[in-house]
């Protein structure tokens, strides 16, 4: 009997085990299901991580150069032309690129602007509490968190504006640096959160391209929006932008893109 | 007798309060030092050394929080990969024909008229030898017709449904099942909340692990049935999927510490009595029992195939109360069992590590708030918050590690295995639930320290609201 079993084609018994009377696949209950560990589960991460880092090595200088062009173009269009300073970056001596940062000067807020910002923060707190505390509780928490940050910023700029240690250029440079860091961390992160799924290699490659492309476009646009907002509203809103619409926003964007590509049919 | 109070622990309370206060006050001092002249050496305020100390302390706090969050993220990664590709342990799944032990099913109920009939209807129809099964709905001072529904079922199923009515004694689920357990003679106690609807084979599946003498408790998978009601229910469905399909099953696979969750589960009566029975001064009697059994050498088994359907909260206020109750109860257990777990000689290193991390899940929320305040203070002081790459890693880890939440990739894996991949698209909205949990878990931590440990305030067990229209027509 043992000899007979050895003669059976490889995989036949396991295939028969999941074959229904009509010849279709019997699906396992979700409680018992797991993904089959195959060579692809090791090869896909290796191939895609290697490809991603190679692409980043080659393209990151071009991507950041394009960010500079984008800043230059849109700031001109928006009527706020600015000199672009180039900051060379070196990550582990491997990834060499330059961040082009607009040298736009943002003004300190005057007392009226501080008052308006504080009033808006307090008004938002009150309005969100009155209107949304039942149905929109998370929104209330979010608004209250933002308002608290804004009120601290108002107090800061009212009492000691001269001590605010950041400029608009340093804010943008830090944000772009965080953005490139995200791009550089992503291949490793995706290796164990996405590439291990049973999607085909072309789908994973497409998903990776989608994530990188979207982030590469959104990151400079985000900081362009910061520049426009800070120039329009003064430095008083920069702490809020840094805290809520900076790195956290980039990460939330990544999670949204990740969720979308993972939801694709394998 | 009617009062349930946490035992006051003034020393522990003061120490925790100091830790809590320094964790909040230090970053607030940093934020104030950024702009208040009196706190700034540059403006002739406090000495330079104070400023140096403050910045150093903020950095250390931030790095500590980052390290803790990364540890929890690594845990989520290990669990997720194990659930996706590891050997799946379902050791009792094939037990179908046996000399089944005597079982009592306890259903604590307080004003559950809207839901309890569904649970009873399903339970009287389960596939389990009738002479070995007893269903005991326990009405705890209901005023909404729950008792009438229960007695109706008892009348129609004499001997099978044996109700109990409580009119005195401590309120709350733990006290109810403690009282009911006193009269239990059966070998196994299974507990269902009144809103749970079990399938026909569920009791056998839940009882099968008790043929193994090492098993002290068993837990099944909870699946929400009102998922499509609104965003909150959808988010809770994601959370449950990650928590059960991945977290609990991975713990089972890795022989770590699966958690008894208080419903869709049960305990061996002898084991329960050996460890002192249900504690009615515990807000999370389930976590409490898990750790007492563990410390006495019993195992808790998770049965992923034992699915039962529950109603999750449909309004945020209800969710807040639920998460605060869980957080408070869980942290109560953490205070009780942290040191015994650390010193236990029965447990191996991995069980200890997992047990300690599980005990600490609801401490992560206040730590994150402290970490956020530190980062904001350092930003205002013009000190480097974190290197950008580390900031990104920390941010991602933060998104992955909060309290009861599963990590975003863990939820994606759970839904992929569940075969409901379209739901993965709402994973980013989990940020909303994250925010609400962050605030309310922190509130619960503070409340536990101040109200319970310091003052010894009476424990209140909040009843979860129900949303069904009423009992089905009989």
Our Rg estimate of chain B from Cα atoms comes to 24 Å
In total, the number of strands of chain A is 2
Q: Which regions of chain A contain 5 or more consecutive residues with pLDDT less than 50?
A: none
Average pLDDT of chain A, rounded to a whole number, is: 90
* Individual helix count of chain B: 15
What top-tier CATH class of the domain at 103-315 in chain B fits best? Alpha Beta
- End-to-end separation of chain B in angstroms reads 39 Å
For the record, the CATH architecture of the domain at 103-315 in chain B stands as: Alpha-Beta Complex
Pattern of helices and strands of chain B:
HHEHEHEHEEHEHEHHEHHHHHH
| Run of helices and strands of chain A | HHHEEHHHHHH
Q: Mean of the pLDDT scores of chain B?
A: 87
Strand content of chain B: 5-15%
Give a brief rundown of this model.
With 266 residues, chain A is mostly helical.
Explain the overall architecture.
The complex is a heterodimer of chains A (266) and B (474). Chain A has nine helices and two strands. Chain A is mainly alpha-helical and 266 residues long. Chain B has a domain of 213 residues: Spore Coat Polysaccharide Biosynthesis Protein SpsA, Chain A. Chain B is built from 15 helices and eight strands. Chain B is 51% helix and 11% strand. In chain B, strand 1, helix 3 and strand 2 form a beta-alpha-beta unit. Chain B has an eight-stranded mixed sheet with strand order 3-2-1-4-7-6-8-5, sandwiched between helices. Chain B has 474 residues and is an alpha/beta fold. At the A-B interface, helix 5, helix 6, helix 8 and helix 9 of A face helix 2, strand 8, helix 10, helix 12 and helix 13 of B.
Keyword list:
heterodimer, A: 266 residues, mainly alpha, two-stranded antiparallel sheet, 9 helices, flat, B: 474 residues, alpha/beta, Spore Coat Polysaccharide Biosynthesis Protein SpsA, Chain A, eight-stranded mixed β-sheet, 51% helix, disordered C terminus
